[in-house]
Amino acid sequence: MIFRQLFEPLSSTFTYLLGCEETGQAVLIDPVIVSMDRDLAELSRLGLRLAYSVDTHIHADHITAALELKKQVGSKIAAPAFDRLSCTELGVEEGKLFQVGSIALQPLHTPGHTDGHFAYRCNDRVFTGDALLIEGCGRTDFQNGDADALYKSVKEKLFSLPDDCLVYPAHDYNDRRVSSIAQEKKRNPRLGNNRTLEEFREIMANLGLPYPTFMDYAVPGNRQCGVCPDDLPENLQKYCRHMTASPQG
Predict the structure, then answer these.
(1) Is the pLDDT of residue 243 over 70?
(2) What distance in Å separates the CA atoms of residue 176 and residue 168, rounded to the nearest whole number?
(3) For the domain that residue 161 is a member of, what is the CATH number?
(4) How many CA within 13 A on the CB side of residue 110?
(5) 91-147 pLDDT, tens digit each
(6) CB atoms < 10 A from the CB of 238, how many?
(7) What's the structural domain count of the chain?
(8) Kinase among the record's keywords (predicted)?
(9) Do 232 and 240 form a contact (C-beta atoms < 8 A)?
(10) What's the CA gap between 143 and 140, in Å, rounded?
């Protein structure tokens, strides 16, 4: 399998490129609209054709590139079936393998950050979205977030994976790129080292995080698989742009 981890610095988002060497098909996990040209250039450089984009959840900090990728290169859109997005071709469900060529993703419903959140296991690695970050986790105070649900998702599903399974999160804000299940069990200050549910509830209730800057625009835009709003304030326009020309053209 061809694998690339790509980073978008504005929202500190990782996009993951998975390519099938036999068929030349590829999947992008959590693509960001402002980095779409970069992703298409990387696919072209590797000689891959994008078959699907797939998101881990409805993001609140950036606009997904799913819809624009479909317009540009004809890729299909996959997303959690739980969210019932009318713009998708494939609704991802737990227990149903998502396969593109030799790329096989095992969807894991991991609610808590959002109620429709999914992680995707692929061989020796798991793409955890915002459910499990490197020494952290996503917040649980919006989009039907729930601390109890997130605790259960991580403890019962993600921490039940093999210790040497590599953890690739949707974000990191401290220049880290990969962890492991064993490391998170031991070192994650919110969920590791035998943290109790009561302790986790208290931690999440007292984070004191500000309201997400881009959320009121990102969530409705992402419910349409990546539509940039026309009424963006000037200070937020860097987060989103309408694609006007194909980098392949």
Answers:
(1) no
(2) 10
(3) 3.60.15.10
(4) 29
(5) 999 999 999 999 999 999 999 999 999 999 999 999 999 999 999 999 999 999 999
(6) 11
(7) 1
(8) no
(9) yes
(10) 8
